[in-house]
Structure formats: structure tokens, C-alpha cells
Amino acid sequence: MNSTVSQHKPHWTELPPVWRWIIGSAIQAGDVALKLGCVALIGASTWVMVDKDANDRFTLRRADVAAVAMMGQGQTYASPIVGKTLADLVAYQPSHGQSFGPETGNMRRYGPHGGVDFDCRIGGCVGAAVAAPIAGRVSEIRKIGTSANGGSFQIHIQGQDWQGPVEHQLVHVDNISVKVGDTVTAGQVVAKVSPTDSVSTGPHLDWKIKRNGAWVNPQTWAKDAKGKNATQQQQAPSAPGQPISDDLLKRAIGRAEGTRDANGNPTQAFFGHRDPGWQGRCQNQGSFSYQHCAASPEAADASWLGTLRKAEQRINGQAVAKFGKPLSQAAMVAALDGYTQSPNAGTMFVANLPTADPNPQQIIEARTAALNASRRARGGPPMNVPRDQQRRVNALIQQLGR
User: Fold this and answer.
1) N or C: which end of the chain has fewer CB within 10 A?
2) What is the per-residue pLDDT across 103-127, written as a single tens digit (0 to 9) for each?
């Protein structure tokens, strides 16, 4: 025998009083919770919007999580003292007052010394160039004292290494060339050692590393980083010779020339400008600041790209003859940008490279040496160009990472 279920839904007034009280209380409680949740959400949103400083910090850190994580993939590591290798820093023997406190008992007024002081014996002299040990973002620049140049600072760089998130602190520096929020690459010069007034140790670079709230011995890290660099080079034999598209050359060299912005879009200079001192009858045009009277910026790009492709073959031939393999993509883009600046210097670039896959600082040094050699060969005085070469190489690397 089949039975049917009534589809009648009882009205509120038909429910027993106890049921109406239970349901009403539940609805009321839910309504209050909903209102409280809305108030909390609005309050939090208002605080973030009103407190601009807090909003900036929140936005930066939220964006940095993914960006910094990407930087740790397949990167190499560098000595913070330009001109010294990681192996040099590992072999350095700091005095007790300069050593890593948690392991040696070296105490400061604020507790164990969290870093190692690298003084003039290892290249940490006044004015020595200081580089980022890792790729990452500048998270903080803090003034910590005075120096002959007006201030002594410490720079914090957050990034990733083989063990995860890590922060490197470069202390007692001035002449800072980066700002908070900047992306840096391993080996990129960010400051110089400042003339601090420390009586006990004298001028030095205090290198500190922090991971998960705990100090890490920089010399131990340097030893491990040296091994990781060697492994990375062995595992990436296909990196040299990676093809370079026309679009990448236009974006990268255009960014260095100032004819394209950070997104690769043409700037006003792309459509026509004159370099200081240029007396030619035609304006510079296009991504490469072409100076030979092209019909349009696009025609200028097409003409110079043809020249660069021929130069690319000659430069790679030099690299194979010297290193047994072509240049890495970054080195070749830097070579072609240098050729755009000075064709004669561009042909001398490989001769000044120590490897086919150089780090950014090695590229800067090779380009500077090539430009000076070109000037001497042509009877001109040496050029003081490291800062401009650093700017251009940084611009190239930023576009390579896009």
C-alpha cells in the first residue's frame, strides 16, 4: 500500500510556542553574529585604508611572498664584499670581538653577536663595495649611527635560499644605491662600507643572517652557498646559448637606454631624442637610440637588430674559443647592450669575462674594463663608468626576469 507525504509547510503561527521560541532565538543570535562580523570586517578594512604606512607594509609583504619564493629557484649566491669570493670569507679568521657570538661567546650589550665583522684584512675597508649575497627584496634600511659621509646604515634583504626564507643584514654601510622595495640580484652592489667610529674593531662590514628568528653563522652559510653554486653550475649546462628574442632585446636594451619603461612600453625618448653632445643631423630613434636617420623608430629597431644579430655570432664565437661554450643569456644580452653603447667595447667584453655564465657584478666589471680599454685604444682617457654600468646591467636583469 502506497502512502503519500503531505507537501504542506506549516505557517509560523501553526508551530508550537516552544518551537517558535527556539527558532526565533537562533535567528536572533545569528543576526547578532552577522552584524558583529560585518563591524569587525569594516573596522579592519578602515584601519588598513586609514593607516597608509601599515597598508604599504601589508601590501609589500603580501606581494613579496610569491616574488621572493620565485627568486630562490635555481639562483646562485655571492660574497657581500666585492672582490672577495665566498671561499675567501669562509677562510677568514675573525678575532674574538668580531666573531659569531652564539658559537664563540662573543657578547655585546644586547646579547651574543649575531654576525661576523669583516674588516680591512678581508676587504671590508672604508669605501669597499658591498653586494647583495642573495636575490631578493630590500625590506628595510635603518640608520644606526653617524659616519664621515653623514650616516651609517644597515640594509635588510629578504629572499630564499636552499633552506627557505632568509634575511641578510649588511651593517655599517653608506652610499646606498637601493631603496626599500627594490628587487636585487645576488652580486648586485647596494652600498659601500662606511667609516664607522668603532674604537675596538675599526671600519668593517658586519654581515648578519637570520632565519626563523634565529641567527645563522655567515661563514657557515658562505661555505654551504659555495657548494650550492658549484652544484647549480653542474646542473645547468644548457643555460649558455639560450636563444634571445627580438622582443627581449628591445625591452631590455630599451630599458637600459631609457627608451622603454619597466613594462616594455615605449617612452617619449623612443620617438626621438638627442644624446648630450651629439652633433649629428638626425635624432636618436627607437629602442636602441639609433642615430643613423631611420624613417621611423620601428625602422630604426629593425636596422639595429640586424646589426646586433651579426655581433651576437661574433661574440659567441669569442666565448666558444675562450670558454668552450657560448655565453649565458644574461651575459649575451649584456654584451649586446654594451655593443649598442660602443661597438668597439662590445667586441672586448668576452676578453674581460672570467666565465661564460657570469654573475651581475662580474658583468659590470667586464663591461667597465671593456669600455676603458676601448677608450685607451682610441687615445682617450679612462672613463669612470662603474655606476652607469651597474644601472644598465640592473635594468637588463630586471627585464630578463619578467
Assistant:
1) N
2) 544 555 555 677 888 888 888 888 8
* Of residues 302, 306, 299, 370, the one with CA closest to residue 341: 370
Q: How many angstroms from the chain centroid is the CA of residue 136? A: 5
Q: Is the CB of residue 133 less than 8 Å from the CB of residue 43?
A: no
- 344 closest CA partner among 320, 319, 380, 297: 380
pLDDT tops 80 at residue 197? no
The residues near 64 (Cβ < 8 Å, ≥ 6 apart) are 137, 139, 158
Residue whose entry in the numeric block shows the C-alpha cell 639560450: 242
Joined grid coordinates for residue 245:
628574442
- Interaxial angle between packed helices 360-377 and 329-341, expressed in degrees from 0 to 180 and rounded to the nearest 10: 30
Closest CA to 361 of 176, 59, 84, 120: 84
| pTM for this predicted structure | 0.49
CA distance 392 to 338: 9
Cell digits of residue 243: 636563444
Give DSSP secondary structure letters for 84-117.
--HHHHHH----GGGS-HHHH--EETTEE--EEE
pLDDT band per the 50, 70, 90 thresholds, residue 277: low
180, pLDDT greater than 90: yes
Q: Is 162 helix (H, G, I), strand (E, B) or coil?
A: coil
